[in-house]
Amino acid sequence: MSYSPLFLSLKIATIATIIVFLLGVLSARIISRRIFPGKSIVESVLLLPLVLPPTVVGFGLLYLFGVNGPIGHWLLLLFDYKVVFTWVAAVIAAIVVSFPLMYQSASAAFQNYDPNVENAALTMGASKFKVFFTISLPLAWPGLLAGLVLTFARALGEFGATLMIAGNIPGVTSTIPLAIYSAVEAGRMEQAYTWVIVIIALGFSSVLWLNWWTKRNVMSFKQNS
Amino acid sequence: MLKRLTPWFFVLLLLVSCSNEQEKEQTLTISAAASLTDAIEEITDIYEQSHNLSITLNIAGSGRLAQQIEQGAPADVFLSANQKWMDEMENKTVIDPSTRINFVTNRLVVISKKGTDPLPSIQSITQLEKNEQIALGQPGSVPAGTYTKQGLESIHLWDDLEEKMVFGNDVRQVLAYVESGNVTYGFVYGSDAASSEKVSIVSELEDDSHDAIVYPAAVVKASDHPDSARDFVDFLRSEEAQNIFSAYGFKPVEEREG
């Protein structure tokens, strides 16, 4: 049995999580506290991948990134690069399906403290960047971290959209969920059991760690203040 | 509180009653290998009309179907694309061996997008460009993939092509990959190639490079309607059904005496 699904899963989920974290925090900070016409429509679109079946997300991505699709066609033409059936496609699928979780958590986190603390700093002459990194980010951090862990767990478990856009290529796109699927299809039950245990362990430990971290830090933060 | 829930209760009742509507007449569930899709749809249509029963088709890769049936999924007839999965079902006494027959055969071809020139030889399939890939069925579970692996190994191309491979979960997915242009070549059955107007056959794997592609059928032991199921299995070998199969690119089984 090859270990490649484990490393692939970790690689794809880690890269997707970093990108989703940056995108999610940025978009939540920009959108969540602002009031503008069509805001709820924008937010609904951002959260859409959460409620759509993965097959729909996969279909959409396949349409966009396929060699004849609007994005895939140009990538091929301009950079001679085909996205579908590569590990990059698996990262894209993981990004799209896990983004709503990060956005949702970050959005709640930025609304969870009094914006006047930021305004106070701004009036005292702090730059926007300084305010963001020394006030907004630390105050929102517990919520952001929760989003980060959920994003990682969701990216790790991504299956449907990945299968459609990245295919099932051992050593390239065959992550743990896909390896489980192939093993069950082929009747290799021991292999399926092993990967099921591995992915439960990974998912369980990330959520457990989050709970432990939240209790330790948020509680002490509240006690101190 | 209860008053507010009352209308929802009726909605629920309505939904539940809807789903029971169809179970009036006898229903046969046929679990058929994905490569049989078009032909079996036509055959079951004809059979339904002449026999006053309804047929539910469950189409997937043979390996998946075998897993489903073994785990107790409802099925009356199992149509596999290879002997391996049928043997497995027979060994696990999931099917009734006395009903087992072979009903059609097939061949393996290499397809590419419509209008592609035929390959000068199967060996030239190795000359792929950076972005080009080839698709085949997952060899562990999809019979078309198993045959393809055998064929490619016997002509010593498997190792050269391995890093270019994308595995489909059934043979129809391989066809779809090629149709969409997302992969350059695909290994499918002659019947699949014939069913699509978007692909051309560019080469083929010699019949003697892999096990004979013979489709077996059998009645599932747990069937509620074993007699109807058996009758359907027999119907697959009738002239009427065989004509439909050959129209879709399948070949008849050559009976070997003795």
Automatic annotation (TrEMBL), chain A:
Keyword Transport: yes
Localization annotation: Cell membrane
Transmembrane segment boundaries: 12-32, 44-64, 84-103, 131-153, 159-180, 192-212
Membrane topology term: Multi-pass membrane protein
Single Gene Ontology MF annotation: molybdate ion transmembrane transporter activity
InterPro entries reported for this sequence: MetI-like (IPR000515), MetI-like_sf (IPR035906), ModB_ABC (IPR011867)
Pfam families found in the cross-reference section: BPD_transp_1 (PF00528)
Domain ABC transmembrane type-1: 6-208
Any one annotated GO CC term: plasma membrane
Keywords in alphabetical order: Cell membrane, Membrane, Molybdenum, Transmembrane, Transmembrane helix, Transport
Record family assignment: Belongs to the binding-protein-dependent transport system permease family. CysTW subfamily.
Function of the protein: Part of the binding-protein-dependent transport system for molybdenum; probably responsible for the translocation of the substrate across the membrane.
Protein's name according to its UniProt entry: Molybdenum transport system permease
Provenance organism: Halobacillus salinus
Phylogenetic placement of the source organism: Bacteria, Bacillati, Bacillota, Bacilli, Bacillales
UniProtKB/TrEMBL annotation, chain B:
Stretches that traverse the bilayer: none
GO molecular function: metal ion binding; molybdate ion binding; tungstate binding
An individual GO BP term: molybdate ion transport
Binding site for molybdate: S35, S62, A144, V171, Y189
Keywords on record: Metal-binding, Molybdenum, Signal
The keyword rRNA processing belongs to this UniProt entry's keyword annotation: no
Similarity comment: family membership: Belongs to the bacterial solute-binding protein ModA family.
Name assigned to this protein: Molybdate ABC transporter substrate-binding protein
Source organism of the structure: Halobacillus salinus
Name of the gene encoding the protein in the UniProt record: modA
